[in-house]
Amino acid sequence: MNVTAYDIAQRFIGVEEIEGAVSNPMILAMLRLDNKWPAGDEVPWCSAFCNWIAWLLRLPRSKSLAARSWLRVGKPIPLAQAELGFDVVILSRGSGSQPGPEVIAAPGHVGFYAGTEGGRVLLLAGNQGDMVNVSPFATNRVLGVRRLI
Questions:
Q1: Who contacts 143 (Cβ-Cβ below 8 Å, separation ≥6)?
Q2: What is this structure's pTM?
Q3: Which of 32, 64, 71, 137 is in the most buried spot, having the most CB atoms within 10 Å?
């Protein structure tokens, strides 16, 4: 049986931030895998979640807390060829005009491809409503899809 990144990521659904001075130790472990600075879990941690899952499976990873850093990992593929279990999707974040995928140092979001529904892309990711879950996003926010090979 081959276990995919999506299979492992599903086991974390429901992990969430703890409000206030106390932090979720699991999220802190994810944040501190490659970085020392996060003092708490109330910071963007979608990339930390993807790095954690990739680390568990010895897959390529960005080793960065920046979501757009995943645009430099793996093999680029079109969204139409994305497969459940193997691919991460990188999105722009925020309202208004956003820089394209050539700008790594800009707000973004990253998660594991979980399919499409009603013309939207579904992501299994961390820091979606402060927790790990599957959420839909407009496809016009997709900056790139990367196959972790």
A1: 68, 71, 90, 91, 92, 100, 101, 108
A2: 0.95
A3: 71
Strand order in the sheet with 108-117: 75-77, 142-147, 87-92, 108-117, 120-125, 133-138
E strand residue ranges, the chain: 75-77, 87-92, 108-117, 120-125, 133-138, 142-147
CATH number at residue 128: 3.90.1720.10
Residue 70 contacts residue 89 (beta carbons within 8 Å): no
CA distance 91 to 74: 16
Residues of the chain with pLDDT under 70: 96
- Domain extent at residue 74: 5-147
Q: Are 45 and 65 in contact (CB under 8 A)?
A: yes
Q: Which amino acid is at 23?
A: S
pLDDT single digits (tens) 84-94: 989 999 999 97
Are the C-beta atoms of residues 124 and 111 closer than 8 Å to each other? yes
DSSP alpha helix (H) spans, 69-122: none
